[in-house]
Design a protein that fits this description.
Rossmann fold; seven-stranded parallel β-sheet; five-stranded parallel β-sheet; 17 strands; alpha/beta; single chain; about 25% helix
């Protein structure tokens, strides 16, 4: 058993590393911003997660934390700003305009870049969702600044107050920390459920300021048009990021028939089923069940990994689970380095035994209650 690596250590000055001074022209940039993503009257949970991270960064820098809300009139923009205050924002920039009723890149990019140019934040964070990735890339390109995508850790470099953004690289085999030294704002996207800091408890007594801003666009200025909104059918899809228990299988299970043992255990536990990338590539399960850098990031209370080696590509997607139980016949498998409990053995024998043991104990518990 080994302790989990729950957080990325602060940036340290490497031996012989030359101190980099901040360009004096960038000193005017102050504050940490979080783009508040919402759709159909609901704020995406990643926005609240980012406010928790943003609060820590703002406190390190001694600056204010701001939310940015863009919405059509009547779409609860002011309420979203107020909620951002409950989750830690000191102020919120609000743009309301009819052309913002549905997400389109052109008006959202103009609104966000106009705000940045006027108020000059030093850090801008967005969720690495479909919307956030599209918006972040165009905003960074328009502002000609740096963007670090799909980050797994954010902190402040004490040497020069720069944002140190950590993300997987080289296909997930390494973690690298990137600093945007000579450009502002420093931009980063973070996938939902990645950061070790949970969503902060809302403080409904916090007060904050709302700063309104105009967009200055009309419908005829925008090339793209929304013809119809078709929501995703999530009824039969995996909801891994929100599962309390996940049973995941890897290629150590040898074939698709053996992978049914994962489904059997998950059914008894009322758990979701996850998988490593090779399993998805082999076609044993659908892509929405992949956990890892190129799949879903999860933080369940219990993660059971059967036949998964624990390569970095998979690790970054599940290492912050509360309890990790690893089953692998290779005692030197990397997953044992960060698992809470490790079982060295044949997963095809251990999974049925676990399934039966859980079935009997859960049945006994129901009778006792």
């Amino acid at each position: 058993m080994s302790e989990q690596n729950q957080s990325i250590p602060p940036v340290k000055k490497a031996a012989g590393r030359k101190k980099v001074e901040l360009d004096p022209r960038l000193i005017a940039y102050k504050g940490v911003w979080v783009f508040i993503e919402h759709e159909r009257g609901e704020v995406h949970s990643v926005s609240w997660e980012l406010l928790g991270e943003g609060r820590k960064l703002a406190d390190m820098l001694g600056v204010e934390l701001a939310g940015v809300v863009m919405a059509a009139p009547g779409e609860s923009g002011a309420r979203f700003c107020q909620e951002a205050g409950f989750y830690g924002a000191d102020l919120c920039y609000l743009i309301e305009d009819p052309v913002l009723s549905d997400y389109r890149n052109e008006p959202f990019t103009k609104g966000l870049t106009d705000l940045v140019n006027q108020y000059q934040p030093e850090i801008l964070l967005l969720g690495a969702t479909t919307l956030g990735r599209d918006l972040a890339g165009s905003v960074a390109t328009t502002l000609q600044t740096g963007l670090t995508a799909d980050c797994t850790g954010l902190t402040i470099d004490p040497e020069n107050r720069s944002l140190a953004a950590t993300r997987p690289t080289f296909g997930g085999s390494l973690l690298c920390t990137i600093l945007t030294l000579n450009y502002r704002p420093q931009m980063a996207t973070v996938r939902p459920r990645v950061m070790p800091t949970p969503i902060p408890a809302p403080d409904t007594h916090r007060t904050m300021r709302i700063i309104p801003h105009t967009l200055g666009m009309v419908e005829t200025d925008i090339i793209s048009k929304v013809l119809q909104f078709i929501p995703d059918n999530t009824q039969n899809k995996a909801q891994l990021p929100f599962a309390d228990i996940i049973v995941a299988g890897g290629r150590g299970l040898k074939n698709a028939d053996n992978f049914k043992l994962v489904w059997n255990l998950a059914k008894v536990l009322g758990a979701e089923v996850g998988a490593s990338r090779p399993v998805v590539q082999a076609g044993w399960v659908d892509t929405d069940r992949q956990v890892g850098q190129s799949g879903k990031t999860v933080r369940p209370k219990l993660y059971i990994a059967a036949g998964i080696s624990g390569a970095v590509q998979h690790r970054v997607g599940m290492e912050d689970s509360d309890v990790i139980i690893a089953i692998n016949n290779d005692p030197n498998a990397p997953i044992f380095d960060f698992a809470t409990y490790g079982i060295v053995g044949n997963a095809m024998q251990i999974l049925p035994a676990l399934t039966e043991a859980f079935r009997q104990n859960l049945a006994a518990a129901r009778l006792a209650s």
